[in-house]
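Q: Two folds, back to back.
A: First:
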Amino acid sequence: MMDSQDKALELEKNENTPVVDTPAEEVKQDAEAPEVVNEQTEEETAATAEAPEVPTTEAATPERKVYTSKQEVLERVKELAHGEEMPQKDEVDYLKTTFYKLHIAEREAALKLYIDNGGDPEAYQILPDEQESAFKAEMGLIKERRAQVFKEMEAEKEANLKKKLDIIEKIKAMVTSPEEANKSFKEFKTLQEEWKEIKNVPAEKANELWRNYQLYVEQFYDLLKLNSEAREYDFKKNLELKTRLCEAAEKLADETDIISAFHQLQKLHQEFREIGPVAKELREEIWNRFKTASSVINKRHQQHFDDIRAKEEENLTRKTALCEKVEAIAAEENKGGADWEKHTKEIIDIQSEWKTIGFAPQKMNVKIFERFRAACDSFFARKAEYFKNLKDTFKENADKKRALIEKANALKDSTEWRSTGDKLIALQKEWKTIGVVPKKLGDQLWEEFMGACNHFFEARNEATAGQRGEEHENLEKKRAVIEQLKALLQDTGDDLQEKLHLLVDEYQAIGHVPFKEKDKVYKEYHEVLDRIYKELNIGVAKRRLNKFKDNLKNLAERGENAIDNERARLLRQYDAIKQEVQTYENNLGFLNASSKKGNSLIDEMNRKVQKLKDDLNLVREKIKAIDAKNKE
């Protein structure tokens, strides 16, 4: 279906007649035979000009009234349905178009108000409209009236045809001899007047009827010998009348309203045909003058509709381009609500532009509109499906968030500060993983959720305010110990190891520090500690090895067995340390370092392993020293 903005476009299906001040049937006639006259004799041309009869209009088309409400339109329709005035097709069509434009605008406004107030577009129902029902009823009466008038007009044309046929038969009876023509002159003139008074006849009979009438009128004049004076007077009078018609036709060239000029020309042709002949030697001259003036008007009229057709082709090109734009937008992928709204605005803008473009050629007008409407419908159908699915997703997300709110409310009064805080933080992280909901509802749910969380954290902050002060003091103490440890790196005294043990004990005796600073101070402490142990172990090991080498002289004096026993003891010590290193390394493979606590334990074990490896290296060097002594 089309969006609310584009429903008015449907009216165009009922407005596919070119907007010009002439009936649609005249446009068709003009396109096929724009010239009323042609290069024929006066008799042939006059006959051709009479059929088909062209509806006439007033010299200037009155401005249409602008209606601002459906009630105004309805009142005018009632006047036409029940009054004496004959309803004209163009006004009836205009009233119908105006009524439904206003009607659709009202319906769109009601739908927009419904949606703005939170209504579901899928559940919206169009209510019956009493004004629309009354309008349809009155239009039905107008249709019946017009049908009845048309029927009466057709009956009148048939009656007129019979009357004119009777006149032709009477004139035919007079055309037998000059004597008979002279006797019947007065009766003949009376029949001519009667002929002029009789108007429309069926279009399919008009040509043949006129030819027969003209034939017997000319024959009568040719036989008229007796009253030559009356005949010459008649010719002179007819010449004056036809000259005035020529002048009127020539003056129409200055008429700015081309359609009005064309219709006035039709009236002049009707009058020209009904005037009797002029003198034989003047017939061609007067006819050529009238024909020349008519040709000017007919060419302007033809050019007018050529321009209309050219404009319609231009409109078709513009509308085709708009169709292609909408089709391209409808084919695009929309990744979210923002894309849908952006493309909706683009299509509504295109629909607004469409309404500013006039009609396309009649054979294409409905087709191009149907193409445009199909593209719009395709887009808005996909949009409706997307938001229907989105509505289900919104409900699912809202239910998940309400479940988290219930959990938060259940925890907000807890005094287990650490565990409950962790749980609430976990709930907040989970909240962020849930998709969106409509903004108004989302703001409300977020306010409820954060209200429960804030209730707990404010209570915890108030209860642990003193504890936080103590933690900051502990942080300062630990930083002071770290600074003393850094100073040991420059200490070369014999009591270095003792000082190190005292500072380590002091550090471990200090309590908790602020949570945010915990990892940072821990890392800084162990970095300096590792450096001290590394340098201390190297120095101690070196002194021990030198001392052991000095003691080898005493062992050698005791005898060869003493040195061998010491070597065997060192080998046993080497194997024991090596086994211990393997045990630690195996245990390290099973530890999980994902938690901070696990990571701390691994660091401590790594330090022990490194200490054992340093001891292992010292034992190896002692064994090498014994082997070197034995070689001596």
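A: Second:
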Amino acid sequence: MMLQLLLALIGTAHTYDNITPVPTSVEAGVGCYRHHAGAQILRLHDADLPSEGYILEVGRKGVTVTSSDAAGTFYGLVTLAQMAGCDYSALEAEKWKVDCCRIEDAPRYEYRGLMTDVSRHFRSKEFLLRHLDAMATVKLNRLHIHLTDAAGWRMEVESYPELTKTGAWRTSASYEDWWITGDRKYVSEGTPGAYGGYYTKEDLREIVAYAAERHITVVPEIEMPGHSEEVCAALPWTCCTGRPYTCPDLCPGKESTFEFLEKVLAEVMDIFPSEYIHIGGDEAPKVHWRTCPDCQKRMEEEGISTVEGLQSYLITRIEKFIEANGRHIIGWDEILEGGLAPNATVMSWRGVDGGRAAIEAGHAAIMTPGEWCYIDARQDAPFKEPLAYGNYMPVSKVYSYDPSEGMDENGKGRVMGVQANLWAEYVMTDEMAEYMYWPRGFALAEVAWSQPSRKDYDDFHRRALGLSGRFRDKGYNVFDLANEYGNRRESLVPQEHMAVGCPVTYNNGSCISPSYPSAGEGSLNDGLCGGWHYKDGRWPGFLTDLDITLDLGTVRDISSVGCTFMQATLHGVRYPSSVEVYYSPDGEEFTLAGVQEREGPEPVSGLDFEVFGTRCEGRARFIRYVARNPGGFLFPDEIIVR
């Protein structure tokens, strides 16, 4: 990276070094091409080139873009625009200069997406149009719009106007105040203080047309059967109880529910030409289905033995309706439960296993695992970032993802692509949404387009800095990658202390949570501290008290014992209520060195770190450390003995 920066400073860097995502191949030419306003860029057709691929040839006398389809031509012009430092729509109308070269390029994946959650916080139409411009700049080609969820219904539906008259408006702008600590009530449109909004059909058609001009497909999502509180409030007869505010799921036992879904989806398909319609399918609790007479009757009639099977019945039936209209469904990986609908595509979010299971069953998958692709998390140190749902997802983490890693050729062939998701619990404004998307969206674009052999993070970082500047010049609110703080400092270098590598006894058994095993039973004194995220492999999780004894091997002078704990109460991660430290020369008689109680009120959300320990003046071979669990997860870091 330093060499590239030095070359740039002395004037030997080339315009083709600035392309994001990085192309498949670049062959340097001699000299440069100077474009004058009005000159033509030659566009040629070659049916043998891959879909969306192109060849860009820049000579001293002109520029030629060769492709097999309109999308390929468009992406060739987008690449040229990045080289020229201007907008792709103004290439032939402006003056610019680029270095001569020959670029051959094609995408790795056909599906290269970003998801925007307009339910929890409504995004303006103007934001979506600007967002489409940004996506096109880095060759992203799918905008997945999460149109419905408990927080609000965002699409006008002529068959059921109540969905937007009531289901689109709530009592508080703050999702946390409304959903976590509030009354979760909806209000009628026009009520003083009502918060929300929705898109008219004209709005959505304008968005779809604008996207199509940029070779972007808008994929609509209508959530079912769960996350449907707003539907059940506006149309209570769609839920099992028939009463608003009593049920989060649609009722698959009632024929009227399917009539409702089919009418809604018919209107969706009339607006969105997307081959794929996303039907959600995630996180449905299904509690009322177990006792609902209609659901139980349906299960008996269809020979269904579980509520998971009943959800599969709903998904399969909806798939048949959508397939009959010439489309296909996408669902979150929960649609695997109870049996997958025949032609469904799975969007794998709970890790990579759902996508791989779908592939093994002969289905296509879109990879969007939370560990790499949930950009609702902070992208830098929590003390400098705004409140976010997730702990830590830096640009480098997104960039490191390989959607096809570990798969055989058949599996790789069934990976349609990759998507980053921005859930909006704490993303209240359009400006904040842009801040969360960029430059992580640049990283996702390179993951989706470029071959793994062409990726290099240092080079990407250089290009992302330049692209971020161009985005800012256009008025986008972009994260300041140049001044990134990075991961927790303690995690960057091994820690040296008296207990590193010594034997550890878990006094209440092996109680590390299987969900968060970290590095196993030795992870509390392996010399490695955790970063900003409890999923980074260095934070062991405990659902019980933490009670361990460390054997230092010999009697030694001890001055202090301490351990850092993480607190993220939104995720059930809490500080211990108290910590007790004991020491002993022989492992038989222990002396209490001190007790530390948790002080201050417990916040509702946020991410914090605090050391729990005590001074320990004495001589000891054995150290006993006890952290009391107040309920939830304890995530301790390294237990440091000095």
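Q: And?
A: The chain is about 25% helix and 25% strand.
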